[in-house]
Design brief:
It is a single chain. This protein is an alpha/beta fold. The chain has nine helices and ten strands.
């Protein structure tokens, strides 16, 4: 293994962070790793782009138990190949559960193009939707991701297989949840967004929207229904002017800023430990187990 392309999509920074860690871990082991944003592609990818590439890695967040719609669209743009190893590195806010199987249908679709999934893993990161994790946990998970990236790089280079095989019940409930979120939730959320009087018409939201779902109409942005629910426009707004009319519950009150949490030395990465009980108990084992 000498050359890998890491195609990635990141809404608010979690996946980009993990991808950069993985790139560093691979290059430390003398593997060339190219980071390429999925959202930059709108036309079929020239097969020549994969010339000399030994494997393709797709890195993406899990939204309602499946890849974001943009990731599915990007997969359709990949050229057919005779055969090529493929790795899926997903980010999600939970430990285990249905998010593990978010890549199942995508893997099957890409197998028809010649991409054989050989490694599939979820990296748990801070939640940027609905329920805010304590900043200490956000930092703890981000630091744990450093060890996960090292392990992933070692596994990939050594040829270790990590393939998920969901049963019918897991597949069905994953499909049911994702159908509701993508076909109803995300569209309604997009249409519910608006900007208040704090908006300064900077246009950053329209410029950065991965779906081009936002346009500027004079001094205010206008939001369409082709929304991913990625939260990028909301948390990146310099004036914190974007809100939802009817679905404000999904937006974290204090936003989500991974870079700020990592840079703040007053935030200690010690939210979960051996004595942690309740909902976060499983997070401790996840953080200390490099292979979890």
């Amino acid at each position: 293994m000498k050359h890998i392309i890491l195609y990635y999509f990141s809404g608010t920074g979690n996946t980009a962070y993990v991808c950069n860690l993985l790139k560093g871990a691979l290059e430390k082991r003398s593997v060339k790793a190219d980071l390429v944003k999925m959202e930059e592609f709108h036309e079929p990818i020239d097969p020549a782009a994969l010339k000399g590439v030994d494997a393709v890695c797709l890195c993406y967040p899990v939204y309602a138990f499946r890849p974001a719609a943009l990731v599915l669209r990007f997969a359709g743009l990949l050229p057919a190949v005779q055969t090529m190893p493929m790795f899926h590195i997903k980010t999600a806010g939970g430990v285990r559960g249905l998010t593990e199987y978010a890549s199942t249908s995508l893997s099957r679709a890409l197998a028809k193009k010649g991409y054989r999934t050989e490694y599939d893993r979820t990296v748990t990161m801070g939640s940027n939707w609905y329920y805010a994790y304590d900043d200490r946990l956000v930092k703890q998970l981000a630091l744990a991701a450093e060890e996960k990236a090292e392990q992933i790089a070692e596994d990939i280079i050594s040829g270790k297989k990590r393939i998920l095989k969901p049963n019918f019940i897991q597949t069905f409930f994953s499909w049911l949840a994702s159908f509701g979120e993508h076909h109803m939730g995300a569209k309604q959320f997009g249409k519910s967004l608006s900007a208040d009087e704090n908006c300064n018409a900077c246009g950053l939201c329209a410029k950065n929207c991965p779906q081009k779902n936002i346009r500027m109409d004079g001094a205010r942005p206008v939001f369409g229904s082709d929304c991913l629910w990625c939260m990028r426009c909301i948390y990146a707004c310099p004036k914190k002017a974007i809100y939802s009319k009817g679905m404000q519950f999904a937006i974290l009150k204090n936003g989500y800023d991974l870079k700020h949490v990592l840079a703040d030395d007053s935030i200690t990465p010690d939210f979960v430990g051996a004595n942690t009980r309740g909902v976060f108990k499983s997070f401790h084992q996840y953080c200390i187990d490099r292979d979890a």
